[in-house]
Specification:
Layout lengths: L2 H16 L4 H25 L8 H29 L5 H30 L1
Helix pairs in contact: 1-2, 1-4, 2-3, 2-4
Amino acid sequence: MTIYGLQLGVLVVASGITFPIDRVAAYSLLMGGLISVVPNAYFARQVFRFSGAAYAREVARSFYVGESGKFIATLGLFGFSFALVKPLNVFVLFSAYLMVMLMNAVMLAYFSRRQRKASN
């Protein structure tokens, strides 16, 4: 399972636990997390399409395309949330966004360390 799959699983469980308590917080949590996961998954897909020295130009180009697409998707998803979703718990939305970004960094560090140990 990928890092993004794990993040989606955590989001669905957290949102499901929150739903009986506060519906607005539950969907705000899910949306905030998705605003982090979806653009990051797009970026990862773009960047890792090519590898190796023979594809250096394509790797650089896909990095820029991925980063600009990630930025535009993040802005668009936040804009969509604020414009079309009423009511919205903005604090929960931003908190979930930040927590999933933090989870992404922690999971990448964990899997990188695990992969280094396995290769030694």
